[in-house]
Amino acid sequence: MSSPSASVPSAAASQDPGVAENPAIVSACVIVIGNEILSGRTRDANLGFLAEQLTGIGVWLMEARVVPDIEAVIVETLNEVRHRFDYVFTTGGIGPTHDDITSASVAKAFGVPCTLHPEAHALLKAHYAEGQLNEARLRMAHTPEGATLIENPVSTAPGFQIGNVFVMAGIPSVMQAMFESLKPCLTGGTPVRSVTLAVSLPEGTIAQGLGAAQDRFADVEMGSYPYRTGDRFGVRIVLRSVDEVLLEAAVEAVSEMIRELGDEPTRE
Amino acid sequence: MSSPSASVPSAAASQDPGVAENPAIVSACVIVIGNEILSGRTRDANLGFLAEQLTGIGVWLMEARVVPDIEAVIVETLNEVRHRFDYVFTTGGIGPTHDDITSASVAKAFGVPCTLHPEAHALLKAHYAEGQLNEARLRMAHTPEGATLIENPVSTAPGFQIGNVFVMAGIPSVMQAMFESLKPCLTGGTPVRSVTLAVSLPEGTIAQGLGAAQDRFADVEMGSYPYRTGDRFGVRIVLRSVDEVLLEAAVEAVSEMIRELGDEPTRE
Asked: By CB distance 3.0 to 4.6 Å, which of A142, A200, A266, B250 could disulfide with B217?
């Protein structure tokens, strides 16, 4: 018997629906910065939000990394990913304490000094009462030279953009507000359409037919996500493509395959 | 005025309490594999669990990555991180469908064939009713040559270990059961002790004193996590170290600093 994996279409063909080759695809990487995520103290809530938001505006999140508050790691990671993806979004590490080293690290990655940003300085001066804008808080007005600010309507201290890198806070409510501020600056590619089919059959039953459908529709990404409700196994099939006509043809082909296996898929 | 960032201790000194230099430190990297996390369809629940578990047994999670179901990316990522960290844990992509390419990708990274594992085959034969173990399900019995199995008490199809890489399922309940199975195989380093101090002062008020304390106790990692309850700002200070005596001394020093600012820290 030949290995079942021999019949799998190549990953590049089946799981990367033209992203690498398609100039209409805009790619992104998220870097979550913070020891607290890696120690398990804090559960990250930013990646899921950004994934959903970026997908919604036609930006493909291609990778995410969680890195500790170590300057060398942040610099190396940034310099690797900012050349590989159209956009890079970072969260965390821009507060007033000694462990907030993102701004200085980004500056180092870009080879520019981290200096007091006059606009950010003015914002903080207006925000804090007389005598409250101490040296620690002034850290939050420092950005890599040449950066432009990202507005923070929640707690004033801004994020910033330099090149294709957008630097945001780690607190989810602040990060989300900053993302809303910068969103109009992003140019998405062709929006990705998605259809989900819920099927009341175990994944192993539909797998062969789904693989064949994926072979036939190489430009439609087909994902299979099993679920279990009590003793019942089911699977959600998610079909995604930038080509709506092709997507509908693939949905029809997969639905027909499911019907032949004795179930009626539900479009969610 | 000198830049406030000039007064920050170097990241390597302050935020990496001896990890790189200390042979007693055992390091790890988690790779979350799956388009569904990057598209925002599914919120990852595995990273937080693994972070907490690893910390609990004295393994330092130093980095995490979320990568798509693209073979070349998985292979490249694995080959980068498995040489840099003591342990690598992957989640996702070991089911029966065409998009489950983790086993084949791990085999490729290790330069070995992905073959039918006799024990895994026997497990699946015993689990499925006559005629149900089709070619798709047999994919789940394929592992890189030389791998040893990780038991799956939830749904039978096993994970596996090859070298320092542990390959687990993506469904949280299955992943957690697999982690429980493999946990006895892990050798942690000196356990990391952690103390949290809750302070009813804004982060910017304690930042300078905390930075000075961090300078004084370079081998105690001090993290500052602001929170907001209604109109009140507060901050939790997390101190972590492998050295308990040093940790208690640092906790005392930080507590004294907080008292001098007019607040009594609460040890949580």
From this structure: B250
Enter the ipTM: 0.90
Tell me whether residues B51 and A61 touch, CB distance under 8 A. Answer: no
Interface of A with B in 157-216 (CB under 8 A): 171, 192, 194, 203-208, 210-211, 214-215
**Assigned token pair, B129:** 């009713």
Handedness of CA B183, B185, B186, B189 (dihedral sign): positive
- pTM for this prediction: 0.90
Contact between A40 and A46 under an 8 Å Cβ cutoff? The reply is: no
Distance, CA of B52 to CA of B108 (rounded, Å): 30
Cα–Cα nearest to A98, from B206, B83, B177? B206
Which structure tokens are listed for B128?
């499925």
Q: How far is B244 from chain A (nearest CA, A)?
A: 17
> How far off is chain B from A105, nearest CA to CA, in Å?
9
Q: Which residues of chain A lie closer than 8 angstroms to B5, CB-CB?
A: 103-104, 114, 139, 142
Half-sphere exposure of B221 (CA within 13 A, CB side): 24
What are residue A226's DSSP bridge partners? A235
Low-confidence ranges of chain A (pLDDT < 70): 1-24
Locate the domains of chain B by residue range. 26-185, 191-267
Question: How many interchain CB pairs under 8 A, A with B?
Answer: 263
- The 10s digit of each residue's pLDDT in A166-194 is 999 999 999 999 999 999 999 998 888 89
CA distance B234 to B106: 45
pLDDT at A23: 58
Tokens of A165: 């890198």
Separation between Cα atoms, residue A23 and residue A28, nearest integer Å: 14
Rg (C-alpha) for chain A, rounded Å, is 23
CB contact under 8 A, A64 and B66: yes
- Is B52 a residue whose pLDDT tops 80? yes
- Tell me if A152 sits within 8 A of A181, measured CB to CB: yes
From A174's Cα to the closest Cα of chain B, the distance in A is 12
User: Is the CATH code 2.60.410.10 the one for domain A26-185?
Assistant: no
Contacts of A180 (CB under 8 A, 6+ apart): none
Instruction: With cut-offs at 50, 70 and 90, classify the pLDDT of residue B87.
Output: very high
Say if residues A214 and A223 touch (Cβ distance below 8 Å).
no
- CA-based nearest residue to B135, from B97, B167, B171: B97
Q: B191-267 in CATH: which number?
A: 3.30.70.600
Q: CA A44 to CA A64: how far, in whole Å?
A: 12
The answer on pLDDT for B13 being more than 90 is: no
Average of pLDDT values for B146-166? 97
Q: In chain A, what residues touch B142 (CB-CB under 8 Å)? A: 3-5
Distance CA B73, CA A29 (A): 13
